[in-house]
Amino acid sequence: xxTPCLQExxxxxxxxxxxxxxxxxxxxxxxxxxxxxxxxxxxCNGCNKKMYLxxxxxxxxxxxKYQNYIMEGVKAVTKEPLHNTRNFPxxxxxxxxxxxxxxxxxxxxxxxxxxxxxxxxxxVVCPICAAMPWGDPNYRSANFMEHLQRxxxxxxxxxxxxxxxxxxxDMMAQVLMRSLRDK
Length: 183
Prior knowledge:
With 183 residues, the protein is mainly alpha-helical. It has a domain at 85-178. Helices cover 46% and strands 5% of the residues. It is built from nine helices and four strands; from the N terminus they run H-H-E-E-H-H-H-E-H-E-H-H-H. It has helices at residues 3-9, 31-39, 53-62, 64-78, 106-116, 127-131, 144-151, 156-159, 168-182; strands spanning 41-43, 50-52, 124-125, 140-141. The protein has a two-stranded antiparallel ribbon with strand order 1-2. It has a two-stranded antiparallel ribbon with strand order 3-4. Strand 1 and strand 2 (50-52) form a beta hairpin. 6% of the residues are buried. Residues 44-63 form the C2HC RNF-type domain.
């Protein structure tokens, strides 16, 4: 995971798993994993120097050949955009329908609304549903807070590869099947 995603998952108020979003319980250090990292050898892709995995991060920060190797990869990937992103709707960040604060991920929007708008009875359009192909951008939920709690406690794409052309019932069925398999 990248640092911003991990920091979001480890909020002091309620740390959660980066994959399933279940609450984390206090644990202990994975000493066996630390030992494996300290004793496993690898080779720098830039300068071909051999070292232990535990030293790789500090080496990569100072190895110009490794940094050039990474930049060549970045250039190769970003040389030509694969698609025009303006043709794709944003299904990752959402505005608050009450106060229009922007750029919430799904979990952030749920938390924001619970904290700041739990007593607001105004009927609003769910921005998450409105962004989906099956969503009605004009439908105003009679009880938006209940809707958030029931429909948006987790993100579909956490559990399935999202096919936004499938209808919502098919997506929900996939999620339920996957959750039963994972038990």
